[in-house]
Amino acid sequence: MKKLVLSLFIWMFIAVSAQAQDRTLTGNVKGDDGLPLPGVTVKFKGAPGGTMTSPDGKYSVKVPSGSTSVEFSYLGFVSQIIPLGSLSVINVTLIPDSKLLSEVVVTAFGLQRNRNQVAYAAQSLDGTAVSENRSPNLGSSLSGKVSGLEIRQNNTMGGSTNIVIRGIKSMTQDNQAMFVVDGVPVANTNLNTSGQQTGIGGYDYGNPASDINPDDVENITVLKGAAASALYGSRGSNGVILITTKKGKSGLNITFNTGLGYAVVDKSTFPKYQKKYGGGYGPFYGTDESNYLVNNIDVNGDGIPDLVTPLTEDASYGQKFDPNLMVYQWDSFDPTSPNFGKAKPWVAGANDPSTFFEKPLSNNQSIMLSNSYDKGSFKLGYNRDYQKGILPNSHIEKNTFNFGSTFKITDKLTAGADVNYSNVNGLGRYGTGYNGNGVNNPMTNFRQWWQNNVDVQDQKAAYFRLKNLSKTEARYVGKENVSWNRKAFNNPVAAYWDNPYFSRYENYETDSRDRYLGNVNLNYKATDWLNLMGRYSLDTYKQVQEERQAIGSLDVPFYSKYFVDYKESNIDFLATADKDISKDLNFKALLGANIRRQRTQSIYQTTNGGLSLPGIYTLNNSVSAMEPAVEFDLKREVQGIFAGATFAYQNTYTIDATIRRDASSTLPKGNNVYFYPSVSAGFVFSQLLKEEKWLSFGKLRANYAEVGSDAPIYSLVDTYNLATPFDGRPQASIPQLKTPFDAIKNNPNLKPERSKSKEIGLEASFLSNRLGIDFTYYHTKTVDQILPVKVSVATGYTAKYLNAGSVVNQGIELSLNGTPFKTSDFEWRINLNWTRNRNKVTDLFKDDSGNQSTNLAIANFQGGVSVNATLDQPYGTIRGRNFVYNAAGQKVIGANGRYLQSATSNEVIGNMNPEWIGGISNSFKYKNLSLSFLIDIRKGGSVFSLDQYYGLSSGMYEETAGLNELGKESRLPISEGGGFINPGVREDGSPNTVRVPNDEYGSYGYRRLPAAAFVYDASYVKLREVVIGYGLPQSLVRKMGPIKGVDLSLIGRNLWIIHKNLPNADPEDGISFGNVQGYQLGSYPSIRNFAFNLKVKF
């Protein structure tokens, strides 16, 4: 039925557009270099209808009755209008527009500026940059394509993407880039579970910017510096990503996309398990034959002790595998198992945890209809994206509707509206962090603590066997958690780890988000040089997150529900002027006002003391009376006025200045009004060198700007949580940890953070725009940081908000583009983006005694490490226990052959910031066949791996059971040539020669090594994207009736990590969205995505 309705809908529009037509007009369009121009708009003056040129520059279109002329237009070229007369063939050569030369740049508030008059760094991308790779996440599609943009993708299904422009500026506030869609600010707040950012478990619910439909994007402009984004006030302090969506075009246009995707795990980002030794902590059981196995239990009743796996021990430093050795294992004690009461050969599990992952299929469909006519235009689009995860019982479905329209009320007054609706439903999103039993995140089990004799598929069979039995026999209800890690042979309760399939099918989350994003606007052309615009925009979403833990889990069963209702409205007024004062002098000005209102209402409630009935997930199923619900009502209003002026002389010299005044409700009276000035200058030197044919364009630019950000909501006055009433009287407490405020005392005297930024740049292109360069140097200092400074716990608080501290970011951005080879049939284009940012904490707060603080811990993690703001160091230093080094920089080893460790656990052992990031893209086109690929590079930076910290200790990994320098197995006794020698020197400088044993858990891991041993270089080189496309020849398409074009494509994403230094994991993967990076635990493997897509244009 749905297909029938859709078909009728499409053909209805086709029928409407079919009009009386006189003849067919054909021809070709080329540039002044003689090469064909694809995508040139061909439309008729005074009549509907039109088309676009094909990849080979050809067109064919029906001429509507009443039309007298045809217009050919293409961005960056001078349009041509040609009388039709009786012509049936028109061939056109378009000449580059000397005023544009390359492109129009979209700037703040969606205003378009000639490139000559833009005096700050702004980089633009065509919409295909985020749509042709068929990724559902627009943010991740920008990786490697824009200089200055650092993007970190999490490997969770539908997970969040961290997007930072020009480094971390604020130590504790938001550093994410601002998204603006058609002038509407888009909320991109962190919706993840509160503990998730500090690695203690929870779910990654993604960030709301992922709701944007990539197929609806016409182009993207990234405003990188403060001068470019100052007009947005505090919202623009972290840079702005401007998205312009598609608009209605001449003639009825229908584009349909359908695609199918397939995903597999990248095995280089998951552990390789040793197959030599089984479960156990070490040789603790007293006999040569079974020193590693329990040997004092008579299982079969024959009076002779049997060999039993150390069921409670979640490591693989146990007995060496021997198929002749018969051992009772976890399923020997499961009455429903075929192996019940049987000993099995002592061998490695046939299916290790790498077989836990599924190979999911995904699919995507979209349709876009658009049209324009004398009085206006419209577009209507729909997109459906379905992703299935690599984990069992996981998927996300997203449905997006887009509508946009403009209508010319009078010759001077035009009304417009854009509405976007999206619905996202998730099931079984991936748990993150370390929760100790794999309830939410089975990767902590598979990467850190596991017995290599366990076959993970046997765990699957056990779960489903008990699940099916529980449907018919009540005695099995709540007993489905058959864990390999029993407390004892006669006690089936899990000791440390639940059955991973039980966790995925019983302890899962569900979530849904409904979002509306849109605006209505009026534009009034007062004169030929003055335009007035009024706009009301709204971004609102409602999200429900439900989390559950089943009866039978190791931890206390629960059900929780979190509801958040977010609304942001903006009222904008903007007057713009664009007037030529004289032949040589152009003046542009703007004057505007903005009122922004935000409100976030949320409520969280959870059961208490467990669940009464299994399988019933409601709050009413709580065993004990629930604590009062945690509710928040967060409000912010910012009122801003702004102005700007630009003078351009001979399209060569440009001076631009802006100023904005904001008043924020989150700051105290007297400090709540603040100003943002900017001034920019540009010099297009190519205008003075027109006789130099090798130089197509050249511009120098420089600017200075100040921006700032207000305080967090409710940081002026103290807040309290209501507790359970005592003796009929209400109780309240200071918020602790699980709320957004921690135990921080607020401050009524706060003032805004401020960033002072300056930049200089060079843009140039050569050889008829065949080679281009864009170079920028920037320096930004952010002062008056709003920091939580420690106070005495006697106050009832742990910290207090103060204005203190500063951070400096300075760096270089370089973009190169070239067309090394171009003929009528073949073209090769290459783009390179490179960024080097240096970040430094230049000031912190002073304590009560007036002493300068040297460190602020941002987050403390398991493993004895923390992420910090350290004075005179980059923001994001990793601190922990270190090796001891001698003066020559060699690691020092004690008399026992083990490494000496630093006296404190607070040494700097890493830094989360990369040395540089870059991307190289190549695209090749031969006739209708195209190939493009992107290589994404990160050099330097550090990551601490808790997976390696524990995984090496537990003996699961191959490197813990390899050969030593003698060619002997390292787990053999030292007397038989086993063990290993730690590389390093003794305290006297002599080489270490002491051999140490490798016969029990911890020999390689955290028990013997400092945290610094598990800090790795986070560099990588990735083949991020490959797209192969083919467009059917127009000679064939013309025979397909209403079809105008057919494009086929094969897509690959994240296909190959060409180089990395972090073992067993993807160095890009993190734990959350936000300022805290450089820490991994329970990391998910990288996913290789393959897809096929069909695009049909009507």
Automatic annotation (TrEMBL):
Domain named TonB-dependent receptor-like beta-barrel: residues: 480-899
GO biological process terms on file: siderophore transmembrane transport
Family, as annotated: Belongs to the TonB-dependent receptor family.
InterPro entries: Beta-barrel_TonB, Beta-barrel_TonB_sf, CarboxyPept-like_regulatory, Plug_dom, Plug_dom_sf, TonB-dep_OMP_SusC/RagA, TonB-dep_OMP_SusC/RagA_CS, TonB-dep_rcpt-like
Name of protein: TonB-linked outer membrane protein, SusC/RagA family
One of the record's GO cellular component terms: cell outer membrane
Signal sequence interval, chain numbering: 1-20
Span of domain TonB-dependent receptor plug: 117-240
Primary location class: membrane
Example of a GO MF term: siderophore uptake transmembrane transporter activity
Localization per Swiss-Prot or TrEMBL: Cell outer membrane
Keywords for this protein: Cell outer membrane, Membrane, Receptor, Signal, TonB box, Transmembrane, Transmembrane beta strand, Transport
Organism: Pedobacter steynii
Domain of life (superkingdom): Bacteria
Organism lineage: Bacteria, Pseudomonadati, Bacteroidota, Sphingobacteriia, Sphingobacteriales
Membrane topology: Multi-pass membrane protein
